[in-house]
């Protein structure tokens, strides 16, 4: 029962996004179409397949904390054959990068600030 609810919720998020994009397209059709053409070209299969592109997009969406993109690209990754394990590994890599960003800034920039500011006080 829980899975059915979650699936419906995911579908509603995607529908909400598509409806919003449709409304935007009515008001600014050339910009909306240009954006959709651009993203369509970016996600087309090339040297990197569509599954990998969707997993990359999911990771970026997670890092950016963009809920609509998280839902959309999770759905698209599954649609293009991503397994649950692959998606979970993306989450792990993003957690490492997110934590890594905090650590790298903390051990460099913050410590540099502390060193400089402590000499003034």
TrEMBL record:
Which Pfam families does its entry note?
A: CMD
**What InterPro entries does this protein's entry cite?**
AhpD-like (IPR029032), AhpD_core (IPR004675), CMD-like (IPR003779)
- Report the domain of life of the source organism: Bacteria
SUPFAM superfamilies (alphabetical): AhpD-like (SSF69118)
User: Which residues does the UniProt record annotate as the domain Carboxymuconolactone decarboxylase-like?
Assistant: 29-111
Question: Entry's NCBIfam families?
Answer: ahpD_dom (TIGR00778)
Q: Which protein is depicted? A: AhpD family alkylhydroperoxidase
Origin organism is Caldalkalibacillus horti
